Amino acid sequence: MAARPYLLVSCAMSVDGHIDDAGPERLILSSEADFDRVDEVRADCDAILVGAATIRRDDPRLVIRSAARRARRAAAGAAEDPVKVTITATGDLDPRARFFTAGRSPRLVYCARPALAPTRARLSGLAEVIDAGDPPSLVRLLDDLAERGVARLLLEGGGRLATEFLTAGLADELHLVIAPFFIGDPAAPRFAGPGLYPNGPARRMRLAEVRRLADVVLLRYLLSPQEPASPGGETDDMSWLRKTIELARRCPPSLTAFSVGAVIVGADGAPLATGFSRETGPHDHAEEAALAKLPPGDPRLAGATIYSSLEPCGVRASRPHPCAELIIAANLRRAVYAWQEPPLLAAGGGARMLRAAGISVTQCPELAAEASAVNAHLTGPP
Fold this sequence. Notes:
Blueprint: E1 6-13, H1 32-43, E2 47-51, H2 52-58, H3 67-75, E3 83-88, H4 98-101, E4 107-111, H5 116-122, E5 128-131, H6 138-147, E6 152-157, H7 159-167, E7 173-178, E8 206-213, E9 216-222, H8 236-248, E10 261-265, E11 271-276, H9 286-291, E12 305-310, H10 323-329, E13 334-339, H11 350-356, E14 360-363, H12 368-373, H13 376-379
Helix pairs in contact: 10-11
């Protein structure tokens, strides 16, 4: 069976933890800058999941707004919009909802077994209605999505569904956007309800990013246990990424290619190889140069992590295989990068390609500005 999708839980809430007020109209908690960020996150996912109550209350479209992002997905061989997914215990869904009418992506409705037949009749021609068990099973949903090729899943609502995934320990990443106001109404819905959460005081989430987006703040957490800190106080990921940026500064100058550094680290934490752009030839990429220093089929690669100052390339003109394909072929388990490849020289998409192959991918945007600064000859000053 395929690995379950990497699940991101995304939520905007007030300072006192509410995701809406008790009124009939939807409350806007986010900013335009954050809407654009969510659009970028959607573009990097295979599917978007919302609860049936969210469809009834908010009538979301769940499509990518940016034409450039849709074109980028198409260039990488993906559908322009992610698959739409919902789960329902009753099948009480309006066929006129924008979940079913907006965009052209497939729609999947995971439905409790007792309501399966009438829901299939109501949504015939609009969505595939799938048996989710009785009661509906989140694990069954994730396993079925994995079999359909969904490697990266974004949960956008609502609060009860997020609570179920988080308390079940099925989420990998949490994006919290905090709006600068209070709701103060005990009848208003909250982001997370009571429950036994795996990420309690003894298993803290790791804060991976803090970003200001107009008047709201994004907090991005990784739900795996806290990584061990290096003697300098940083996590291992941050420490190794700083070494990739040091390597990037050694690259011979080029007006047509990025300067990138890469380090491959074994499961035991020991470095296996390093590389940087144009290290031995004008077309060398950093990840390629590092991999070339290890024998093909090296068993240490199966448990290794590759660190790169730039997202590994998913499209390449100078060589037959982009670095993402080389990483997949080498059977690495994990990739970590600092700076997402801008659409300056190529369409990008390497992280998406890696995730689709089952490789864990992490970005550490805290170091993106440093990695970008090495490439100011192409991008201009940060």
